[in-house]
Amino acid sequence: MFDQLHEECGVFGIFDPANSNVARSTYFALYALQHRGQESCGIAVNEDGVFRSHRATGLVPEVFTAETLEKLGSGNIAVGHVRYSTTGNGNINNAQPLVVRHVKGSMAIAHNGNIINSFELRRQFEMDGAIFHGTSDTEVIAYAITKARLETGSIEQAVEKAMNTIKGAYSVVIMSPQKLIAVRDPQGFRPLCMGKTHDGAVVFASESCALDSINAEFVRDIKPGEIVVASNNGIRTIETHCGQKSGMCVFEFVYFARPDSVIDGASVYEARLRAGAFLALEHPIQADVVIGVPDSGLDAALGYARQSGIPYGVGFIKNRYVGRSFIQPTQGQREDAVKIKLSAVRSVVQGKRVIMIDDSIVRGTTGARIVKLLREAGATEVHMLVSSPPFVNPCYFGTDIDSRDKLIACRLKSVDEIAKEIGVDSLGYLSVESVNRIAKNAKCKFCDGCFTGNYPIETPGETQKDKFEEKILRK
User: Fold this and answer.
1) Strand extents, DSSP E, 247-314
2) Is 439 a residue whose pLDDT tops 90?
3) What integer pLDDT is reported at residue 333 of this predicted model?
4) Which residues of 385-423 are buried (b: 16+ CB within 10 A; e: fewer)?
5) Which fold has domain 263-452?
6) Which backbone phi and psi does 325 adopt, to 5 degrees?
7) What are the start and end residues of each CATH 3.60.20.10 domain in the chain?
8) pTM of the model
9) Distance between CA 197 and CA 231 in Å, rounded?
10) What are the pLDDT digits (tens) for 318-333?
11) For residues 466 and 85, is the Cβ–Cβ distance under 8 A?
């Protein structure tokens, strides 16, 4: 319904020597990561080498009831996943964690990211006799690891060897009969951190907010290229793939991550405040009130207001009880859906010059509908500011930024033309220079390829994007 970006997934893993209720801890952690994926979710539990798992389409509280969690049983290792599909469609075979049984034992894997050479690897594995059940590139990672497992002495050595083959974005948690492994791709495109609970459990999560939900203490971020192994022998790391050019997706700070998370040493909340402050410096506007589009536009709007001295106001109320399936087919019905999902606060905007801040403009359709809400509520002027640069290139690393012909910044020639189509009095974007400075004290460099076309690693080209889906459709 809304013209918003989606990030592929959130992952979580726990190794608990005390054999506490790891399924319940994973459930609470996935609840905290729900914003990273609302399409499907799953949990796999390891009890003395016996794997039990449950996965389904739907939100975490829909998929996991008290009875479902009870059936997963007890154990000392678990992995969990929430998913939004970018590569691979939304059928149940693509829900994670994937549980794989091979000659060396069992493995469960949960993945966040996108493998850019997955189509070629899948074709190679199929020629060798592999059978795939879904279309996600996570299956390709699983096959790469199990194939390497036949040639190595341990699961972590297999992961290390598989990393020579797979290219792209992958923050992964892997459960074997005796170990929990966390691995992050050499560029660190997607976040992954480690924590510990008060009773000694080791946990890994996409964001630190998941650690907070189970009262775990943040220990550190997993380094780009690092493999961390938790077992009864303690924790050890493998860093043979570390030290390459890093490229964290800068949109984690602009939109994807929860504001209370800290990623690679930088506060997401503070980054969004800084984005708003930079917008105020780059785009000074005479106005009466600054408002944000819920949710990620709110913090940037507050940052703009503080920097500019223009009062901050709550210009929209978001209806949080509209289900994710509330999608209507016709243009008129879609406009009605926006009104039900989002309402303008008339007393805040009526008769006023309004600065409205959002995190991005993708196709422009939703922006136009939201601006119409403000006009109908009596705003005399609407100036839109965006806390990221224009999208002019697709993403290959786990974000569903579409092909160039569907991006409004590519379809129209100028910012003024975009402003006219959306229906605002003026429009301004955050500069590329500033977006790379919003995450103060971050320990990584950023990928801004969707804005600049400069990616940290070589990409396959737009015509190669999402080949899995094309292959399935041809069949």
Assistant:
1) 248-249, 262-263, 266-267, 289-292
2) yes
3) 53
4) bbbbbbbebbbbbbbbbbeeeebbbeebeeeeebbebbb
5) Rossmann fold (3.40.50)
6) -90, 5
7) 9-246
8) 0.91
9) 15
10) 887 665 433 344 545 5
11) no
DSSP string, 300-344: HHHHHHHHH-PPB---EEE-TTS-TT---SSHHHHHHHHHHHEEE
End-to-end CA distance of the chain: 29
Residue 455 in tokens: 């990616």
Residues of the chain with CATH 3.40.50.2020: 263-452
Structure tokens that stand for 218 in this block:
């943040």
Query: Which one of the listed residues 9, 41, 395, 444 is annotated catalytic?
Result: 9
9 is catalytic: yes
Confidence of residue 465 (pLDDT cuts 50, 70, 90): low
CATH architecture of 9-246: 4-Layer Sandwich (3.60)
Tokens of 231: 């077992």
Structure tokens at 44: 């796999």
Q: For helices 138-149 and 155-162, what crossing angle results, to 10°?
A: 120
Q: Are 175 and 435 in contact (CB under 8 A)?
A: no
How far, in Å, CA of 248 to CA of 448, rounded? 9
